[in-house]
Fold each of these.
Amino acid sequence: MRNVGFTGLEANETYNPTRGINYAWEFIRYQIIVPLLQIALYICIGMSIMLFFERVYMAIIIVCVKCLGKKRYTAYQLEAIKQDLEKNKNYPMVLVQIPMYNEKEALVELECQKWIRSGVNIKYETRNNRNGYKAGALREGLKKSYVEACEFVVIFDADFQPEKDFLWRTIPYLLENPELGLVQARWKFGTAGVWRMTALIDAGGWKDRTTVEDMDLAVRASLKGWKFLFVGDLARVSIWKKWHVIYAFFFVRKIVAHWVTFFFYCIVIPTTILIPEVHLPKPLAIYLPAAITILNAVSTLRHVNSNKENGNIYHFNCLSWTYSQSYCSLCHRSIHLLVLWILFENVMSLHRTKAAIIGLLEANRVNEWVVTEKLGNTARKNNPRAVMRPRSRIGERIHFTELTLGMFLLHCAIYNMLYGNDHFYVYLLLQAAAFFVVGVGYVGTIVPN
């Protein structure tokens, strides 16, 4: 009887499906998940250290600028250049480009007809398509035959009016300094700038692969070595400077920063709570992100370096100097929004990481224009309440990816409260709430289809 009972117990233990599932889970947990999570943790810590040193480097430059008064710029005296130009009376030909689309106040055709009646050689032309949007319009305008006689090109936006002496304030610098490729106007002129035509062509012209066509052109021109408001001298850019631009601006800022924010703070750290076999160094998980956040927060207020007394225009090296000038001091009026800003940035890192992966792995999608177009006057007349139309369908309002991540973080927070001996649940609860807020469509602008 004992042998029969023992055999029956043995049979029950052998064919117990629950134990089989537990054994399989333990094998996958210790042999696959734990090693992969440990590797991901080391990679995220390494990228965090890279990001930390990059922030410290920029902080040192900011301290040198603000405290030591160190300045790396060249001052050009405008009045002396203007006097020499007036003596020679050798005025250059300047092409003026004003890209516009459905501008209500722009009566361009009527103005051109008025100028024609006054004897001015002017012709009104329009495109029959919107290929490339603003960059495409600028590029198309440079294909005209009369552009060959133009030495410089100035670009104005359609929503502001420059002062009458704008060219007198910009062109003389380009004439007297052949190493300059661009003169960018002061902030009161909006985004207006004057390009040397040879510099624009040398950099490859306008590209419609991005919505920030002006920055794209400036980076390409800087790598060509042209000198302008934010670039070094005309000499060939050294390998070190090119490496610095690629590493600091493109790799660290555009890839590492987004990946660390999403994978480390929203995936790896919460997962280590569920799998305690993975050792998470507390200093690297708490103090290092806090230091990076503080360095980032105190660099949010854009610093404007200008000298209105003598009217000089200063030129900086965009490879390092202006990068630090763009972020210099903490805006005290927004300090109370710091925590909300951190949580929102972590949520948005999901989309930035997705965009970075698409840009790296699917290069053919880089040229796709998935942007919000201007509605124009026609859309406003046909549907005056289009912009204010609320979302009625759940599929348009609910974002399931954000909600899924919110549920994951909430689960990790509850698990940490019940079984953990630390206080990670405080951060996890706040971050989960941020994902839920975005997931239900509470944050963002509603754009009609």
Amino acid sequence: MLHSGREKKNGLPLRARRGEPQVKASRDEWSPVIKDAMRTLGWL
């Protein structure tokens, strides 16, 4: 994939980081928080 000169000039990263894997929170950990927020918004 070709990148524009603008990306290079602006110093933006040209490829995704492949170092440390991202740590994703388990669904069980966030489920109560999400459900509470949805209740507050009236979605549940």
Amino acid sequence: MSEYVTWKDEIVEEIHRIREKYAKSFNYDLKAIFADLQKKQAESGREVVNLSSKHSLAKPLSKPTQDRG
């Protein structure tokens, strides 16, 4: 019979408590939480990379050229 070891990490537990308190302060409203995070991001003055672009970094495949020789 295998035993399961319960592992507690105080840091992870603290993060969960903080996250729960933050979500509860917005009544668990994801739109409100998202708006708050966007506001904090804008106010931070930090450069943010936007990954929402639909442009691909990969080069498009080129059509094979026919040998006309």
Amino acid sequence: MKHLYQFCILLSFFLMSLGFRSYSVLAETKPIKVMTTFYPIYTFTKAVVGNTGDVTMLIGPGMEIHDFEPSTKTMIELEKTDDFIYLDPSMETWVAQLEKSNSSRKTNMIKASGEMILATSQESPEEHQKEEHVHEVDPHLWLSPRRAIQLVENIKDSLVKSHPDLASQFEQNASQYLKQLKELDKDYQVTFSQAKQKSFVTQHAAFTYLALDYQLQQIAITGISADIEPSAKRLIQLIDYVKKYEIKYIYFEKSASKNLARTLASEANLNIAVLNPLESLTQEEIKKGQDYFSVMRANLKALRLTTDRASKAVEDEQ
């Protein structure tokens, strides 16, 4: 009887330990919750997190990143989130407001740019006639595959620090994604090492890092907008500039006015090409299979319209 009693005691402890272990396993496998700001940070983070958690995006297509104002709902959701990942305060200028609301400090606030040094912005006030915000530094790091590699590394390292038990999954997921980014970087490097024309002219000076990393020169045309036709005076100046340097393409965002494109084509014998700043993708674009890589390869193809053609070295307008 005594032995039976001892056996029952031991069995009880054994079953209890199994229960604790089961609970521990469940706790470890509970998906983490990660909130990101806009598309590039979302897609980089999702690649690293994989199936270990749920990744959401705060700012969707058609929403202005700089003018975004966190709602009460956003503040509440933040408190339920394990990690909040943003690019840099120069892009998401409202992040400080979120950090103040994170009173419980349960949410890890992760800056994807980490210790990266940002270049001085080439954007001018003329480019932002309708906007209050003008960048002092250029936040468009994701538009260079080489900088995108560093962003993914930073996101991965920060998540490993926040969730060391998931380190191996993060490392494995990041490794697969970084392999694709390095292939993209190589394609850019090989293409532009053979460039016959190193300068490209753009209305939106968002490609500073791309130019720096692949030995190109970004020439930003000021005083014109993607959706407003230039004045007669500005058009004459632009025609003279285009003829002087034999420019065949000026790059706009995909939202460029068709009227402006027609005007420039007819008056300046100039073509409009698209460089996508990739701040967002619509659901329709995603359904069609577009992603970071497809858009960046489309940008590469568009730039080749200029770089594959030998012409005069282009200088900034005086």
